Amino acid sequence: MIRELPVRGRVARVARGAAWCAAVFVAGLAFAPWSTMAADAKPAADAGAEKKPDLELPPLPADKTIKQSVRVGGRTLSYEATVGTIPVRDAKGKKIADVVYTAYTVPGNDPHRPVTFAFNGGPGASSVYLNMGAIGPKRIQFGVDGDAPSDAAITQDNANTWLDMSDLVFIDPVGTGFSRSLEDEEHTKKDFYSTEADIKYLSRVVYDWLVKHGRLRAPKYVMGESYGGYRAPRIAYALQTQMGVGVNGLVMVSPYLDPAAIGDGDALSPLPWMINLPSMTAGHLESQGKLTPAAMADVETYVRTQFVTDFLAGRSDPGAINRMVQKVSAYTGLDPALVAKLDGRVDIGTFLRETHRSEKKIGSVYDSNVTAFDPFPGSAERQSGDPILDALLAPTTSAMVDFITREVGWKTDAHYEALSYAVNKAWDRGDADDKPVADLRKAIANDPNMKVLIVHGYNDLSCPFYTSRLIIDQLPSFGQAQRVKLSIYPGGHMFYSRSTSAAAFKADAATLFGAK
Q1: Measured between alpha carbons, how far is 160 from 501 in angstroms, rounded to an integer?
Q2: Shared-domain flag, residues 66 and 92
Q3: Which end of the chain has the smaller Cβ count within 10 Å, N or C?
Q4: Are residues 17 and 39 located together in one domain of the fold?
Q5: What is the pTM of this model?
Q6: Measuring CA to CA, which residue among 389, 498, 506, 487 is closest to residue 133?
Q7: Between the CA of residue 389 and those of 122, 146, 148, 392, 435, what are the distances in Å?
Q8: Cα within 13 Å of Cα(258), Cβ side
Q9: What does the pLDDT profile of the chain (516 residues) look like in tens digits?
Q10: In a domain, 482, yes or no
């Protein structure tokens, strides 16, 4: 999904007009554990001396593989589905966590067959959303207007799976899915729930999976959604420079790329308002049946030019606010009187509520045209959850647990954490910075063959597409105009829930993979 987990505490931020992302929790420095091929190779005598983990938990099951098939591209593709674990160890070799992954591989031992590692975000989201919503061989419907928590958790063949182009490995970070820490709360937070530790141990998990399955010669791709989009370039750079593993390509889905660009709505910078307005406009245009690239080019030009000038002029130009009010109300479809009260600065919360107020409904931050009834329509402030998040948790969790425990037969009594609010709350936020953009630049510069695909849905207000547009326009060319490609599709944060957008996404990915 999603990406993923919404930022707790963001409600107040939305009220101030921030451009925040569903996966915006960033972390400060922390010691990072390492995950373990070398440690597993220790002599037997040393293994017996290993310290016990802090928590005495029942062991997780051994890796389990089953054979399945999917209809894709007019043919039947046979594959193996595996649920397994990668241990994480500290610097002294003590096992401190189990990371659970789900892998789909096509038999044949082709050393040139690509493998893609996929991460969702949150922090606190498992990989189920990219797995069963976007690119895995089976999918369950979610993220579209009308979806409900009571929808049947039944999967179907995914016509837009990437399995015909690449093997797929979906990794659940510690605290999500069935992945778990074996340390106490304090050490868990230090070793896993911060930005630096997160990147380091997950990079090692990717390395360990490649070694465990003999795939170091394969072309490698890293994919991340939302906060996973923050992870992806940083993991790629860590693999290059720390793990000794080259990365052929990056795919960032609705990414949270630049924390430094996000303001609280009260700052002098026009960036938060510039970033949000195009996605608000897209939502309004789509509701009118008028969403086109040409219509979106108009608002994008406006926010780069007259909007910035009028915003910064403020009261020094008596006509500036009036011009903003007229343009912003026209783009968003909101009442000019309301926009005038806000001095032309429409925050996300106001847009989502006022756009659907006549129906007594609320729009989702992940797709403003996905709505739910407002349980308290007379309240001055919103008192409900998000329409997409509230609808997707039950069916996605049930579908994933049913697949793992019943179909694959990987049995555990643990609870599957599709969206862990506890992880999200515990995350060390640190200071806002642009490390993902900096690491993206360095990773691209290091490897002249690496390519990048960044994709968004037009209607997403959790991670608006215009952030990526501005970032890409500031990148060096790196010798090729298409080293970094931006594609925007109809839909929201999980645009892939729409079959036409999912098909367009796969077509762009095929170009990245060099597939026919």
Answers
A1: 10
A2: yes
A3: C
A4: yes
A5: 0.88
A6: 498
A7: 12, 13, 10, 5, 28
A8: 22
A9: 433 443 333 333 333 333 334 333 332 223 334 454 433 434 444 444 456 667 778 899 999 999 999 999 899 999 999 999 999 999 999 999 999 999 999 998 788 899 999 999 999 999 999 999 999 999 998 767 666 676 777 889 999 999 999 999 999 999 999 999 999 999 999 999 999 999 999 999 999 999 999 999 999 999 999 999 999 999 999 999 999 999 999 999 999 887 666 655 555 688 889 999 999 999 999 999 999 999 999 999 999 999 999 999 988 898 999 999 999 999 999 999 999 999 999 999 999 999 999 899 999 999 999 999 988 888 878 888 899 888 888 889 999 999 999 999 999 999 999 999 999 999 987 666 668 898 999 999 999 999 999 999 999 999 999 999 999 998 888 877 778 999 999 999 999 999 999 999 999 999 999 865
A10: yes
Spatial distance between the Cα atoms of 126 and 415, rounded to a whole number of angstroms: 12
Q: Which of 363, 388, 413 is the last residue of a domain?
A: 388
Q: Are 332 and 351 in contact (CB under 8 A)?
A: yes
Structural domain includes residue 71: yes
* Contact call for residues 40 and 87 (beta carbons, < 8 A): yes
The count of domains in the chain is 2
User: Quick check: 23 and 228 in contact, CB under 8 A?
Assistant: yes
* 260: its two tokens: 């430094």
* 137: Cβ contacts below 8 Å, ≥ 6 apart: 68, 70, 72, 77, 79, 81, 104, 157, 158, 161, 163
Same domain? For 366 and 421 the reply is no
Distance CA 67, CA 55 (A): 34
At 138, list the tokens. 């089976």
Residue with tokens 């999967």: 155
Contact (Cβ atoms closer than 8 angstroms) between residue 387 and residue 85: no
Which residue segment(s) compose the domain that 420 sits in? 10-260+394-513
Do residues 319 and 442 both lie within one domain? no
Do 161 and 255 fall into the same domain? Answer: yes
**Both 186 and 244 in a single domain?**
yes
Are 81 and 229 in the same domain?
yes
Single residue among 388, 412, 433 that ends a domain in this structure: 388
- Cα 347 to Cα 256, 276, 305, 354, 463: the distances in Å are 19, 8, 20, 11, 14
The answer to whether 495 and 505 have CB atoms below 8 angstroms apart is yes
Task: Answer whether residue 413 is part of any domain.
Answer: yes
DSSP labels, 287-316: HTT---HHHHHHHHHHHHTHHHHHHHHGGG
Q: For residue 216, what is the domain's CATH number? A: 3.40.50.1820
Rg of the Cα atoms in the chain? 23
Distance CA(280)–CA(148), nearest Å, equals 24
For residues 340 and 405, membership in a common domain is answered with no
59-65 contact pairs (CB < 8 A, 24+): 60/85, 60/98, 60/100, 60/178, 60/180, 60/412, 60/414, 61/410, 61/411, 61/412, 64/408, 64/409, 64/410, 65/408
| CA angle 229–234–238, rounded 5-degree value | 145
Q: Is 80 exposed, middle or buried (0-12, 13-18, 19+ CB in 10 A)?
A: middle
